[in-house]
Write a structure and sequence with these properties.
The complex is a heterodimer.
Chain A (H helix, E strand, L loop, with lengths): L1 H14 L25 H15 L6 H7 L3 H11 L3
Helix pairs in contact in A: 1-4
Chain B lengths: L3 E10 L2 E4 L3 E3 L5 H6 L24 H16 L5 H5 L1 E7 L4 H9 L3 H4 L6 H10 L5 E5 L7 H12 L4 E9 L2 H4 L12 E10 L7 E2 L5 H11 L4
Helix pairs in contact in B: 2-6
The chains are: A mainly alpha, B alpha+beta.
């Protein structure tokens, strides 16, 4: 799971062009949104798009996304359970 | 046009960057060589400014260059208070607009790229950073820089709908998109941005008379003529 957590941190940084952020700056158990990363609603769409593109996961309900994106760790658990590729 | 004057100017392009107070400076090597080849990804906000620019790295190149040109101008214009900013309008002219973002979106559709598939997005990014709330216009030109935005801005100033007005010319074409442009689209450069701040003539120092040049010509001339050159 830790390897997937690190993989997702790198994917978040790349997908959102977080030029000045390093993987170590993203805490695995802290909220992804509403913290120092300064992400907005377009970024959430980008992350949903990244999950579909890289892991074959299609998120169709807001409630599912809210739980999955609670933190990088919850996202890793969600990806591990639902990934198609 | 004598009642309307230029209060400040900022310019950046393959040759260098500057404003009408500091003059034009060359890009440091090897950045300059990369920029002359059109490798814009090498150009970072920190190359020019000590300040922070939130989300800069996440913008498209049209917005990044437009924002940089206005910042170069803003660094020169020290007496721009909050009230002035709220009554500042902005006119942008661009021939190539968001073509680079359009091409990127066609290659790989992504939400963060989609937000930049409108040529007017550069106006939004500039207004968010500088808190401009006056009238706004985005003009798609046919190629070479014109005086259309200057004439429009002068009209706003005379009728009182803006206290000051920025005229911005901006092109940002990636090398692969540049290869697809029609031959009759006579761009001066595949990338450049300039900004003029116009206002009513006053007793303030360092005002420039508005000549007959196009927007780009006027910006570059003022920056070249400043003391660094």
């Amino acid at each position: 799971m830790e390897a997937l957590v690190e993989e997702l941190k790198n994917k978040i940084i790349a997908a959102l062009s977080l030029e000045d952020i390093k993987p170590a700056d993203i805490k695995a158990d802290e909220p992804i949104f509403g913290t120092g990363l300064g992400l907005d609603s377009i970024d959430s769409l980008e992350l949903v798009s990244m999950l579909e593109r890289d892991y074959g996961i299609l998120i169709e309900e807001m409630s599912v996304a809210q739980k999955a994106f609670a933190s990088v760790r919850t996202l890793a658990e969600f990806v591990a359970k639902n990934r198609k590729n | 046009m004598s009642d309307i004057v230029i209060k400040a100017a900022g310019w950046l392009g393959p040759e260098g960057f500057g404003n009408d107070l500091a003059g034009l400076a060359n890009w440091p090597a090897p950045l300059g060589e990369a920029l002359r080849r059109g490798e814009l990804e090498e150009l970072r906000w920190s190359e020019l400014f000590d300040s922070e620019a939130e989300r800069f790295a996440r913008m498209d190149w049209l917005s990044r260059l437009g924002l940089m040109a206005v910042e170069l101008l803003d660094a020169r214009f020290e007496t721009w208070d909050a009230q002035d900013r709220e009554q500042t309008g902005i006119c942008v002219e661009t021939a190539t607009g968001c073509l680079t973002s359009d091409a990127e979106f066609l290659r790989l559709p992504r939400p963060t790229v989609f937000t930049y598939t409108l040529p007017s997005t550069v106006i939004g990014e500039i207004c968010i950073r500088h808190r401009f709330k006056g009238p706004m216009l985005c003009l798609m030109s046919s190629g070479k820089s014109t005086r259309a935005t200057i004439d429009e801005a002068a009209g706003w100033l005379r009728e009182g709908s803006a206290k000051a007005c920025l005229c911005v010319s901006c092109e940002a074409v990636s090398p692969d998109v540049a290869a697809l442009l029609p031959p009759d689209l006579a761009l001066e450069n595949k990338w450049q941005a300039c900004a003029l701040l116009l206002g009513r003539k006053s007793g303030a120092p360092r005002q420039h008379a508005l000549g007959k040049g196009t927007l780009t010509e006027t910006c570059r001339h003022l920056c070249r003529a400043a003391r660094r050159c």
